[in-house]
Amino acid sequence: MKKFILRFIASALIGTLLLLATGCQSSKKEVSSSGTTSTSEARKEGGSLVFGLETETDHLDPYKAATADTRSVLFNIFEGLVKPDKDGNLIPAVAAKLPDVSSDGLTYTFKIRSGIKFHNGNAVTAGDIKYSLETAKADQIAGLSEVKSVDAEDPSTVKITLNIKDNDFLSYLTVAIIPKDYTQQDTHPIGTGPYKFESYTPQQSLILAKNTDYWQKGLPHLDKVTFKFESDTNALLLDLQGGGVQAASVDNATANQLKTGFTIEQANSNAVQQLDLNNAVKPFDNVKVRQAISYAVDPDEIIKTVNYGKGVRVGTPVIPGFKKYYNESLANAYKKDPAKAKQLLSEAGYPNGFSFTITVPSNYQVHVDTAQVIINELKAIGVTATIKQVDWATWLSQTYTNRQYESTVISVDGSNLSPESFLGRYVTTSKSNFLNYKSTDYDTLYQQAVNENDDAKRVQLFKQAQELVSKDAAAVYIQDIASLTALKTGYAGFTPYPLFVIDVSTIYKTK
Amino acid sequence: MKSKLNFDSRLGICFIGIILVLTVISFFYTPYNIYSMNIAERFISPGGGHLLGTDNFGRDVFSRLMCGAKFTLLVAGSTVCIGTFFGVILGLCSGYFGGIADECIMRLIDALNSFPGILLALVMVTVLGKVKYSIIPALGILFIPSFTRIARSGTLQIKNSEFIGNARACGASPVRIMFVHILPNLYPSLLTAIVVGFSNATLAESSMSYLGLGIQPPTPSLGRMLFEAQAYLFNAPWVALAPGITIMVIVLGFNYLGDGIRAGYHLN
What we know:
The complex is a heterodimer.
Chain A: H1 2-32, E1 48-53, H2 68-74, E2 82-84, E3 90-92, E4 100-101, E5 107-111, H3 126-138, E6 147-154, E7 157-162, H4 169-172, E8 195-201, E9 205-210, E10 224-229, H5 233-242, E11 247-250, H6 252-256, E12 262-268, E13 271-277, H7 287-296, H8 299-307, E14 311-313, H9 338-347, E15 355-361, H10 365-379, E16 384-390, H11 392-401, E17 407-413, H12 419-423, H13 440-451, H14 455-471, E18 475-488, E19 491-492, E20 508-509
Parallel strand pairs in A: 1-10, 1-11, 15-16, 15-17
Antiparallel strand pairs in A: 2-3, 4-5, 5-7, 6-7, 8-9, 9-10, 11-18, 12-18, 13-17, 13-18, 14-18, 19-20
Helix pairs in contact in A: 7-9, 8-10, 13-14
Chain B: H1 7-28, H2 61-97, H3 99-114, H4 117-128, H5 135-158, H6 162-169, H7 174-210, H8 222-229, H9 237-264
Helix pairs in contact in B: 1-2, 1-9, 2-3, 2-5, 2-7, 2-8, 2-9, 3-5, 4-5, 5-7, 6-7, 7-8, 7-9, 8-9
């Protein structure tokens, strides 16, 4: 008996201590969170930075790298003939200027930037470019399949000939340029980017050093950048708090626990989070039902509730960062209007609502949370939704590939900056049309846009295509979730891109 | 068994009683709606308007805890019922008839036991599809083997007693002998197993929900609440502590009660 009482008292004591400890911690936090972050922009060249990554790079060879995280790191080592800038435009990189394109759109002639060198000190020649593009084509890099030939006209001029005209060909030429006949890319990558490879330790880190010969004057600022591989979110958080890591891409929960001593840089994640309604399944085969759901779901509330206000409301499948093609006017096409939603439901023959399942991949907490908010919002119009969580592999096979679902919440992105990569999936026969959207009007309009040569008209047609998708409420477009990058106080200059890349060349120390 | 209510039992009943009172109340009343979100009241610390604070959606943790415990206990209770029902029938048959029946049933049970518990439950949930309570049969099957073994070993001990021979001589059918004469004598050991089974089932439900396979959100369950809270462990520890401590109290309560009953019956 005594033993039990003692044990009980001991456990009670430990419990109290634990509570006290956490209590102390949270109160300490509140005090220190009043500290302000310095906004002084005094730039200091040199120094080093440790950037935390939650996934390990898969390949250092730019043509073999498959994961988005790896490509985002290699962005600092490699450059293409052209590269994207922060607004989504293509600027010349290895090329001296944008190419001369023949009137039939089949040949592109590039001049190589004078004085540009690989990290090994050799100058870039037309032969390297021919080798790079041919190797990339052999490795089945997207968009290069229709390249007929690459010819070195003289050491600094290269001519690319295509089999068929492709209006977005230039955006595929962001593919890395590598030195000719160099076969050790996977262990010691060599490119022309602002940073050169120094060392790679599997499961630990990838270290980059400043490329002092970089063609953009004044860049990069830091002497050394280490990408540290973290095992999971908690390890990353502890390293950020402990000071071992000075910058990282973080989620909302982590960002909220890092308020002091860090600036949180917010940018677009460049994917559109949407509630996809399977257009082939009852009752979503009725456009009025889809419109009703669109009127009932309030993206602003989701952004506020799930993402702490960090997100951009969108109304089309195109990301807002892709300014040229993004149809901004559609963001508020469906203002929250439960009365109108109910009326549309009655017209569609569901005056008392209906029930359906939202399939959500359970590894994405943000989508699960979004679904919870959607359920609450749909209650207001008498529609009962329930969540069905599945693992990522099941989601990919059942929902995406087999299209066996009623609705799902997911973020959809484009593989490159071309309108086709965002709008192509809505074509009736498209393999990636997992929404089962069917519209002959859309198919015609899309084909017309793809074949249009005049740039302004083409942009106009793609914007019309977005209007059509919005009018048909193919899906409920919610937001471009903000991607957050935590940067320790004392660093500045983070540049967001409309692509999934980490550009460390513009980051500098302030003290 | 002079005093049934020894210290362990009393402590156990006390712990379980607190939780049961809360869950019973939750059928009629919760301080706040468990689904309504209010971001103006996000992460309020315990005390004041919200007894145990609020979570990342501004939902009242205490209200969700009451309902979460309800769903968790519902799953745990149903699981133990299924396990006991099938386990006892299989165990009685196996022990009483012996021979080929015994071999077949016990090998089946061995086969069930040879899978890791969580893996088996994962497979079951996948096979049954994700209906709201598919976790109940999945976990129920998981609990059959232990009850079968207890019922079987008890039956083996009793079936050669004189009173069973007498019953058989009077022409009692095997079914009558099993359920009327043998089963009541298994009561003490089964009761202990049921009580401890409750605590195991609570833990199993929590771990399944933690893996996203149990009760589906936004319906709360203790494991689900714990899972959702882990992302906010540093800035809102109360969201994790509340369900965590509740799970602990339930498990401790049932274990104390089990110990108490065992001591009361002088079982080992």
